[in-house]
Amino acid sequence: MDKKCSDCDGTIVIPDDALSGEIVSCPDCGLEYEVAKTRSNSVELKPAEPVGEDWGE
Amino acid sequence: MQVGILGASGFVGGELLRLLLLHPNTEVTIATSRQYERDYVHRIHANLRGFTDLQFSSPDIDQILKQCEFVFTAVPHGSALKVMPTLVNSGIKVVDMSADYRLRNAKDYEKWYGYTHPHPDLLEKFTLGIPELRKDEIKNSDQVSAPGCMAVTSILGLAPLAHSGIVEKRAIIDAKVGSSGAGTKPSLATLHAERYGVIRPYQPVGHRHTAEIEQELSAYSPEFEISLSAHAVNIVRGILCTSYLTLNRDYSVQDIWKVFRSFYDGQPFIRFIRDRKGVYRYPDPKILVGSNFCDIGFDVDRDRRHLVVLSATDNLVKGAAGIAIQSMNLMMNYEETMGLMLPPIHPV
């Protein structure tokens, strides 16, 4: 299943066996999402909590 | 198709050879060099040993016209001026790598190059060879002029913004270029002892590529102005252009993404890099070596309506030989990517 990144409009491929709570990231901009499955087994993406990173600066 | 390269001993000539020797639809039959006449090509372009037995020949236009269906002119600026009338009149398809036929207005040659163009009537026959911007024109052209390396790297970063109208009509471009951009003619400045380790501002204002950049951007946004400052840096290949613009109102990162994505939709050699992860989060010429890609990224300071665009290329490929072959593919109705879809080398 494909979803669009809310930030850069890139295409995020969600694996069929993705579980609720699994983290996926946009291949273009790296924004991370948490997979959320609904009762009807459709998939929604919620922005994941960012992890602090100073990148060596 | 039989192809000739007029002026094949320079760095651009070497890259044309490297790519054309493996191109499925081309056979290089003539590679000219006055200096190295009768020498094997691999003696100058040592990376090509084992790929060709071709020897450099003298630049004989009659021979080229007899033996070739397509010609690349990779001779120094000024030299292409003289041979072009014969080539154009013969009907052979040509891509000129020099600056001699890039500008539409003959008066711009007086201003930027300091000479009166001897064949102003030929300028309108040439299409500036930037396939991402002029695909249909190139397909229908017999004469294409390959853009300057810093010019095309800047233009590809800025054209979507000029087209969109979301920026003020002015950009400041800070360009950094590797040593291969200076060509093979040695000088005191190119000695290893002088060149190694530099971050040398060699043209803070008045670089000739300014004319090309303004010419192309003004096609999208009339009277778009740029200021280009060029620096020689401590790499062999590559260009990074950092361009500074002012947004004409508050636009978000998502807005800028939309501008770039919609403008370059389906373009095979444009990649966007604005990543939250990995070592290379913005364009860097280091990850473009040997490839025909132009990587583009950006960031926005919304408080100040300040937009920074980063565009990077391998100056000898997307900035010269690769983009010329991309134009050839279009002119010959081949697949645009034929012989060019190579991943960059990493690490280098």
Structural features, described:
The complex is a heterodimer of chains A (57) and B (348). Chain A has 57 residues and is mainly β. Chain A has one domain. Chain A has strands spanning 2-4, 11-13, 23-25, 32-37, 43-47. The termini of chain A are far apart. With 348 residues, chain B is an alpha/beta fold. Chain B folds into two domains: 2-125, Rossmann fold (3-Layer(aba) Sandwich), CATH 3.40.50; 150-314, Dihydrodipicolinate Reductase, domain 2. Chain B has helices at 11-21, 41-44, 61-67, 79-90, 106-112, 120-123, 131-139, 149-164, 192-195, 209-218, 253-263, 317-331; strands at residues 2-6, 27-31, 70-73, 93-96, 127-128, 143-145, 167-177, 199-203, 225-233, 239-247, 270-272, 294-301, 306-313. In chain B, the strands form two sheets. Chain B has a seven-stranded mixed β-sheet. In chain B, strands 2-1-3-4-6-5 form a six-stranded parallel β-sheet, with helices on both faces. In chain B, strand 1, helix 1 (11-21) and strand 2 (27-31) form a beta-alpha-beta unit. The longest helix of chain B has 16 residues, at 149-164. The model of chain B has no long low-confidence stretch (mean pLDDT 96).
